[in-house]
Design brief:
Helix content is 35%, strand content 10%. The protein is an alpha/beta fold and 328 residues long. It has a single domain, classed as Alpha-Beta Barrel (TIM Barrel), CATH 3.20.20. The chain has an eight-stranded parallel beta sheet with strand order 6-5-4-3-2-1-8-7. Strand 4, helix 4 and strand 5 form a beta-alpha-beta unit. Helix 3 runs parallel beside helix 4. It binds pterin-6-yl-methyl-monophosphate. The site of pterin-6-yl-methyl-monophosphate has 18 residues, from strand 1 and strand 5. Pterin-6-yl-methyl-monophosphate (PMM) binds next to strand 1 and strand 5.
Length: 328
């Protein structure tokens, strides 16, 4: 059980809005709950008293941040179990790199990469998210025990994705996206990035709901690095309070932030020679972003390293509690 006493069995767990899957009228109540004391999470058990921590397992040879490290199933499974042991609330398993310029992986290869890992982690009791743009991969992953779909294309890459999510009644992370990695920087043109990302996410959320997805199961993500340059990423991080409130929706959606090890952090921290900081060398800065994002009320952070980020969300929960108490 979580510190909040939530239902723990897979499939009956509450989604991001903490409501049952049949509650179609329900709107997300995603805000962190500063009035409650943050409690340490248990492996695989989402804990809504603070911002959740999603640990990343990239089963790819070429992800920009950790490509190749977890390509073998045994290594990926061991890594996922370690992230859960460290307290990750969700383990996000993906088999297709989205680094800038990446070409698509054939579906058979994506399935070969992720299915043994998802099957093993779910069987071990982990709360597993499948990071895929393909409806068929999502469908097979959910049948194998995944509890959540993380679609970096927000449903744009595969028109069948929303139907799969709707039928399964699981939480659905919808990332802001404009096109595949092979040409995404050509799409990084904005007049007002925050407004345009909100508008486009709103359209994606409406399309998902029209396909039957329960609005209470939708989580939105500004899509840092996806058709965005550094200045766009920083503008979005500086406006996190606006990301969850989408045009045409009265209530806010929970927000996920995935800044971990992204290039714009390495560039900010470049040395005097202009050389960007390495991906691993950006981990402390990722923790700083996690603390700020969690203090701003985001629902979840997606990270490569759990312990420091877990400390950051616990500090942020206590910080929010103090802010809510108004100095008393
Ligand atoms: N970024 C990556 C992969 N999956 N999922 C969501 N929801 N949001 C993201 O920004 C996101 C993602 C690419 O980063 P990685 O190669 O380090 O996993």
């Amino acid at each position: 059980m979580t510190g909040d006493g939530e239902a723990a069995s897979r499939g009956s767990r509450p989604g991001p809005g903490q409501r049952g899957r049949s509650d179609r009228q329900a709107q997300p109540s995603h805000r962190a709950q500063p009035s409650r004391q943050a409690e340490p999470s248990q492996p695989g058990q989402p804990n809504q008293s603070r911002c959740l921590v999603m640990g990343v397992v990239n089963v790819t040879p070429d992800s920009f941040s950790d490509g190749g490290a977890w390509l073998q199933p045994a290594a990926a499974i061991a890594h996922g179990l370690e992230l859960a042991r460290q307290g990750a609330d969700i383990i996000d398993v993906g088999g297709e790199s989205t680094r800038p310029g990446a070409q698509r992986v054939p579906i058979a290869e994506e399935l070969d990469r992720v299915m043994p890992v998802i099957t093993a982690l779910a069987a071990a009791g982990g709360y597993v998210s499948v990071d895929t743009m393909r409806a068929e991969v999502a469908s097979q992953a959910l049948r194998a025990g995944a509890s959540m779909v993380n679609d970096v294309s927000g449903g744009l890459a595969d028109p069948d994705m929303a139907g799969v999510v709707a039928a399964a009644g699981v939480p659905y992370i919808m990332n802001h996206w404009r096109g595949h990695s092979s040409d995404m920087y050509g799409l990084a043109t904005y007049t007002d990035v925050v407004s345009e990302v909100r508008d486009e996410l709103g359209l994606r959320a409406k399309a998902a709901i029209a396909a039957g997805v329960n609005p209470a199961q939708i989580v939105v993500d500004p899509g840092l690095g996806f058709a965005k340059r550094a200045e766009h990423n920083w503008a979005l991080l500086g406006s996190l309070d606006r990301i969850g409130s989408l045009p045409g929706f009265e209530d806010r959606f929970p927000v996920l932030v995935a800044a971990s090890r992204k290039r714009f952090i390495g560039r900010l921290l470049a040395g005097p020679d202009g050389e960007p900081r390495s991906f691993v060398g950006s981990d402390d800065a990722t923790i700083a972003i996690t603390a700020l994002a969690a203090a701003a009320g985001v629902w979840c952070v997606r990270v490569h390293v759990v312990p420091g980020n877990m400390d950051a969300v616990r500090v942020a929960a206590r910080w929010r509690q103090a802010v809510a108490a108004g100095g008393r």
